[in-house]
Amino acid sequence: MSSGIQREAAVGTVQEDNDRVRVTEYRFAPGAETMPHVHQWDYVVVPQTDGDLLLIAPDGLESRAQLTQGVSYYRQAGVEHNVINVGRAELVFIEVEIKAHPIVENQEP
Fold first, then answer.
1. Residue 84: CATH number of its domain
2. How far apart are CA 99 and CA 94, in angstroms?
C-alpha cells in the first residue's frame, strides 16, 4: 500500500478513551496522511470542516471521499486504508470508535 511518497502525518488527539468508545480528533494539513491502518471497531466520522480525501486500499485501489462539515458517516470494523487530504486547506474530523457492549438487564443504578 506504500507509494514511496513522503507525506506529513495527520495529527490524532485522543479526547476520550474508555471501555465503550474512543473519540479522536484528526487534523490533516494539505497533503497529510494517516498511514495505512485497519479499523478494529465500527466507527462514525463527524467532519468539522469540508474537504476532499484520497483513500488507498491495500491492493492500491484508490477512491475519493468528499467530507461536508457536520455531515457524519458510519463504517463497519475491518476497513483498511490510508487516508490523505488532497484538498488545499486543513481538514479536521472527529472519529468515534464504538467498542461493542451488550445491554445489561436488571442492572442496579
1. 2.60.120.10
2. 16
